[in-house]
Amino acid sequence: MTEIHDDEADDPQHPEEHIAPVPRISVQAFCETEQTLKAVTAAGEDRRLAKAHLTAKSGGLAAAIEVYETMPTPNVIVIESDGTRDILEGLDDLAGVCDPGTRVVVIGNPNDTAPYRELVRRGVNDYVVGPVETIDVVRSICSLFSASEAIITGRIIAVVGAKGGVGASTVAHNVAWTIARDLALDSVVIDLDLAFGTAGLDYNQDPAQGIANAVLSPDRPDTALMERLLAKCSEHLSLLAAPATLDRVYDFGAEAFDAIFDTLRMTTPCIVLDVPHQWSAWTKRALVNADDIVIVAEPDLANLRNTKNMLSVLKTARPNDRPPLYCINQIGMPKRAEIDVKSFAKTMEVQPLAVIPFDSKLFSTAANNGQMIAEVSKSHRTTELFQTMANRLAGRGEVRKPKRSLLGPLLKKLKARTGRGSAPHRKAS
């Protein structure tokens, strides 16, 4: 039994777009309506604007011009137009008090008649027609930097188990390997289980350095350091391995890994986090700040409870993101009483991203040989499942294979026979 469900993929509230976080910036918004004021204030709580210092107040263009006559302007100004005054005239007045380099976002009104090219000529970086929702504000501010800084803003996918031993690491490593191989997308796997991580074993790697060297470094990790610490697994896949030693205790603060993730985002299109099954300040932060989350669960009561709790907490912490995803692993284990997929999904109130069948021989062979599932059996249905998951999580959508015709094998045989029967005879000399 192998399934992929796309319920959330078509949800207009949670589109398949990737919105990269902003650097440390200051944003000031001047709103005309209460709805916009609430949307901008809520945007300031979004994970992608976590590094931004955002303030919102009422007054629109007039208030902004008055404020900046006596104080410097921030990195970004958000202005709402109520359509009652000439917006071009107002922007000309604003330009007279703006510092060079300030970026301007205008939330327009349907009554505005100014052509977009005239707004651009006056220095407007983005124009959004109101009324706006929180995600519109987040998207507009973030796009100013992801589009203009000429840097890669990598997508982070966090994979975590609802319970220990459910195969979350195996899922994370196979999905990352598939993204790198099948999509030719430069990817990095970060094994965050510093004491017991298995990514090095799964990829048949034994690097001398890895994630511990980065997180314990006294200096802020830069691109050069990260390049030295990465182990090359394939043409497009690198590994930041865990030491998997017990010579020290790995206790970290909530923001311990932020600089590592930020540095890798600048150079790597896809980053897969193999998050250990624990609930601490830094693991919760890693999950909340990821672009996509996959919770891996087995079909039993403890996994059911834990998955439900994790989905609830993470969805609440990320109101403007696609909801966290979950997959059910090791379905159909012999002699084990299981909660059926339908009942599991009913409790979650959403279908699983995938249902992965139990296959002891396949997975144990891969683990003991340091191989991925596709390397052991490229035609296995689980290999196809990881390919589809990789496409979904990399933002490429589901790849649907064309349906096989029932007449296909018969037509193939007929064609072969026709080919043999119609072969030209050599002319006798």
TrEMBL record:
Q: In its keyword annotation, does this UniProt entry include Nucleotide-binding?
A: yes
Instruction: Supply the InterPro entries for this chain.
Output: AAA_dom, P-loop_NTPase, ParA/MinD_ATPase
| Molecular functions (GO terms) | ATP binding; ATP hydrolysis activity
Sorted UniProt keywords: ATP-binding, Nucleotide-binding
Q: What are the AAA domain coordinates in residue numbering? A: 155-318
Q: Where is this region: Disordered?
A: 1-22
Q: Does the keyword Phosphoprotein apply?
A: no
| Superkingdom of origin organism | Bacteria
Instruction: Note the Gene3D superfamilies from the entry.
Output: 3.40.50.2300, P-loop containing nucleotide triphosphate hydrolases
Composition bias, Acidic residues: 1-10
What's the short name of a Pfam family annotated to this entry?
AAA_31
Q: Name one GO cellular component term.
A: cytosol
A GO biological process held by the record: negative regulation of cell division
- The protein depicted here goes by the name CtpF protein
Which species is this UniProt entry from? Bradyrhizobium guangdongense
